[in-house]
Design a protein that fits this description.
Aspartate Aminotransferase, domain 2, 3-stranded antiparallel sheet, 15% strand
């Protein structure tokens, strides 16, 4: 069976990153000869256990935690569920409210919706331009009835960095547990659990050049948390089941790479991201940038193309892999939800394209991407029916 080759230009690193060669090399033995169960008390099992614990130490070092505070999971979604629902299960009856933002990932909004349906009260704090959490509103939302604050560290669409540390300091003064989804931030910006002051922090390996299907949850000592599933005693009883040794080793290897490359990667990628914006803004009249100039991930650029659907722009450039951040169901495209939450009109939000760079992105790719996207937009505008024409497409923003 054959498969199509990868796109020429990959600018969708916020969706997933390629597996780093060093990570593939580290995991290979645990997909073959080193197949032991970490709970087994023989040589194969002990080697597997040692590999898991070395990976735990590497992940802990990346976020300035201790190894005992790292719980391995199947990824960011499970980590968020364990944090949110696990805290709710332990919360006293006088604390039945959760504070969050209006621009969280579905891995956070879905478990919150489950709790809301069971009687919990959610306080959703808005964002202010350019997409950063309204800190004053968030601080005003705190109180002694709040069991949990959960706000992502880096917004996956805009790349905006949220004021988690300031919010956490105030929340913990109320005795509130604080969680942050750091899946997009890990490997792209320095992350320290002590600097942030959070009690819980979610990690996804595939967002930082590690394998899919593995992640971690940082759990500060003493944080009240119930497991979602029960079984044996693995991962301190919080995530029972035989460990995914190869995946965990891969996450550990990715953590070591992140520590090695973080500073140099961020500076180079930020330069390329800014060059991409300069090239696009010079070629496309009316294009808008929604990623903050400051306080944002170095690799992320969310833009909107005027008068067209972002999905249509990308459909004309199959050589480029990127995303719109909006949903498409049976041919109907919905506007980018994050941009709507930021107060943009549906017409503006429908033109969204998210371009997220990575470790392997080159200047030549940036130049080519700008040309391709500008050309696609120009072609769409040139062929669009007149706003007064009876054939104007009902669903196309003008």
């Amino acid at each position: 069976m054959t498969s199509e080759g990868p796109p020429v230009i990959y600018l969708d690193h916020n969706a997933t990153t390629p597996l780093a060669p060093e990570v593939a090399e580290a995991t290979a033995p645990y997909l073959g000869a080193e197949f032991g169960n970490p709970s087994s008390d023989h040589a194969l099992g002990r080697r597997a256990r040692r590999a898991v614990e070395e990976a735990r130490a590497a992940v802990a070092a990346l976020i300035s935690a201790t190894p005992e505070e790292v719980v391995f999971t199947s990824g960011g979604t499970e980590s968020n569920n364990l944090a949110i629902r696990g805290v709710a299960a332990q919360a006293p009856s006088v604390r039945r409210r959760i504070v969050t933002s209006t621009v969280e990932h579905p891995a956070t909004t879905a478990p919150l919706a489950l709790l809301e349906a069971s009687g919990w009260t959610l306080t959703r704090v808005p964002v202010v331009a350019p997409g950063i959490l309204d800190l004053d509103a968030a601080l005003a939302a705190l109180g002694d009835d709040v069991a949990l604050v959960t706000v992502m560290l880096a917004q996956n669409e805009t790349g905006a960095l949220m004021p988690v540390a300031e919010l956490a300091a105030a929340a913990r003064a109320h005795g509130t547990v604080v969680h942050t989804d750091a899946a997009q931030a890990i490997g792209k910006t320095p992350v320290s659990v002590d600097d942030l002051g959070v009690d819980l922090l979610s990690i996804a390996a595939h967002k930082c050049y590690g394998p899919k299907g593995v992640g971690a949850l940082y759990v500060r000592r003493g944080t009240p948390l119930s497991p979602l599933v029960v079984g044996a005693g693995q991962e301190g009883g919080l995530r029972p089941g035989t460990e995914n040794v190869a995946g965990i080793v891969g996450l550990g290897a990715a953590a070591l790479l992140a520590m090695e490359h973080l500073t140099t990667d961020a500076a180079r990628i930020a330069q390329l991201r800014d060059e991409l914006w300069t090239a696009l803004s010079a070629r496309v009249d009316g294009i808008r940038r929604h990623t903050p100039d400051d306080a944002s991930l170095a690799n992320t650029l969310l833009v909107t193309f005027p008068g067209v659907l972002g999905a249509d722009v990308l459909a004309r450039v199959p050589q480029l892999a990127a995303s719109t951040g909006s949903a498409c169901h049976a041919g109907e495209h919905t506007p980018n939800a994050t941009l709507l939450a930021m107060g943009n009109s549906p017409e503006v939000a429908s033109g969204a394209v998210r371009l997220s760079l990575g470790r392997g992105t080159t200047r030549a790719e940036i130049e080519a991407a700008a040309e391709l996207l500008a050309g696609a937009h120009g072609a769409l505008v040139a062929t669009a029916p007149s706003p007064t024409s009876p054939s104007t497409s009902k669903g196309t923003p003008r």
